[in-house]
Amino acid sequence: MKYIDEFQDPELARRLLDDIHATATRPWALMEVCGGQTHTIIRHGIDQLLPDNVELIHGPGCPVCVTPLEVIDKALEIAARPDVIFCSFGDMLRVPGTGRDLFRVRSEGGDVRVVYSPLDALKIARQNPDREVVFFGIGFETTAPPNAMTVYQARRHRIPNFSLLVSHVRVPPAIEAIMTSPSCRVQAFLAAGHVCSVMGMDEYPALAERFRVPIVVTGFEPLDLLEGIRRTVRQLERGEHTVDNAYPRAVRAGGNPAARAMLDDVFEVTDRAWRGIGTIPDSGWRLSARYRDFDAEHRFSVENIATREPAACRSGEVLQGLIKPHECEAFGTTCTPRTPLGATMVSSEGACAAYYLYRRLGVTPTKLEASPVA
Amino acid sequence: MCLAVPGKVVEIEERDGTRMATVDFGGVVKEVCLEYVPDLAVGEYAIVHVGFALQRLDEESARQTLALFEELGLLQEEFGDPWEAAAAEAGTVPGPAVKDEAQEAQR
């Protein structure tokens, strides 16, 4: 495919790798923020091709993984109602709530539908005026504009049976939370390219300056990742900490002004709980007062659901980059994509799922290492 | 879910007051909303996420990036140390004695 294949070229990858090897003289720890980037890295073995002194720490940028358990439980409760058609992206189906998931709700008779776009859910609402149609609006700054446009259209075309269950999250407050954590080892960030396609880069210079970390906007193909790493290591070696754009074909400095204006109209910033991590101030969006009528939490009175995470799941530590997935005792034993304990094992962007898919034959779960083979 | 992929705009139309396009992703064709990049033209590429064009893909910039990667390797081959390159390929470190002998031999 055009503009994908060219950025997977092995010969150019070798040249970028050579340059990284020639540049890195000291140990450095870089965090790639986005789960899509984690998958490219693990799938292509990029982390194993880097010099030993350049470590990649996998970040919390998997929207499915950080959606809090209580929001999943709210989704399950709404989806089980007989008057509701519940629409979601496919990768939310198997995320475990307390006791069940959307897949189970559907098998028990709930009308759960997978859509490609939130506009598809709006179409379903138009076609079913006697049913309540709810769309599960999760995701980062990339997914928020499509969901915002859908709510805007619902209001404009007066489609009263449509609502949004919102759990949007924002990257910059998460970077701040990671950098202020006492156990933080991160020295630089590969910022998520498509988040910056929307938001631009305005939010990052203050973070780079405050924490003295290079922040390099990075794309998603193997060459994009290598170029992001190359530029980051170069900055680290020189003692610099600036914001750099290694993904200019998709990122302009000001982002997408039309999308940002729509976000400002439809959403307002709020504190948000991140699954496995906890509440991060100002790290999310909720519907603004003008659009409150389209808020599914309000419409279905599910505001007061509270939950607790299973103790065996260490996805919170994985999401903060404190451990690698295979260092969790449950990895590949009691926790697999078929029987996931946490969302990081479910999502196509979760770090645990990436390690399980591409790496499980190469890593040994901690539990097996600890007990001698008889 | 956060995946966004480049696709080529094939056809554009207004539907219910909304700017929509048919976009080709290497053979897979989808309906895509253009409201956020309204000046996209047929034949151009866009970064598309969950049925929405989020940004124009700048083809000139893509070419420049690839050219930079090409050049990076060439400069290395042109001006780099051939002994280090050979040693790297052989998986060893070039020793100074080896280097000196070679340089003397060249003279």
From TrEMBL, chain A:
Keywords associated with the record: Iron, Metal-binding
The keyword Cytoplasm appears for this protein: no
Molecular function GO labels: 4 iron, 4 sulfur cluster binding; carbon monoxide binding; iron ion binding
KW Ribonucleoprotein (keyword) present: no
Coiled-coil intervals, chain numbering: none
Superkingdom of the source species: Bacteria
Name of the protein in question: Hydrogenase formation protein HupD
Organism: Streptomyces natalensis ATCC 27448
UniProtKB/TrEMBL annotation, chain B:
GO biological process: protein maturation
Gene3D superfamilies: 2.30.30.140
Pfam family, one: HupF_HypC
Single GO MF annotation: carbon dioxide binding
Stretches for region Disordered: 85-107
Residue spans of biased composition, Basic and acidic residues class: 98-107
NCBIfam families: hypC_hupF
Protein family according to the UniProt entry: Belongs to the HupF/HypC family.
Protein name per its UniProtKB record: Ni/Fe hydrogenase formation protein
UniProt source species: Streptomyces natalensis ATCC 27448
Origin organism lineage: Bacteria, Bacillati, Actinomycetota, Actinomycetes, Kitasatosporales
